[in-house]
Amino acid sequence: MDSKALRSELPKLAMDDIPKPDSDAVSITGLVKDHGRITGYQLSDDRIVDRAEGVALAKSGKIRGVGIAHRKDTEYLKAIPDDTESNNLSSLPTVK
Q: Which residues in the chain come in under a pLDDT of 50?
């Protein structure tokens, strides 16, 4: 495996699950934050969901482009690495 492919695959190994999105899955377009911590997600259909609901939707294939990871006993979403910086969750705007 070349170094570019390895850089793409390593972050995926840190994810607990990478669900297969449904054909009608939405994407994340913004982040809801409280004191710098992500507490929810704005979806491409303009819904705003909290972090737990976002994880549940992703697990059921309703959100595309994300995997599930965890820190301690809290699950959260991470962007699936690709060559596009603009779709990384950290690049998305904060919404209210």
A: none
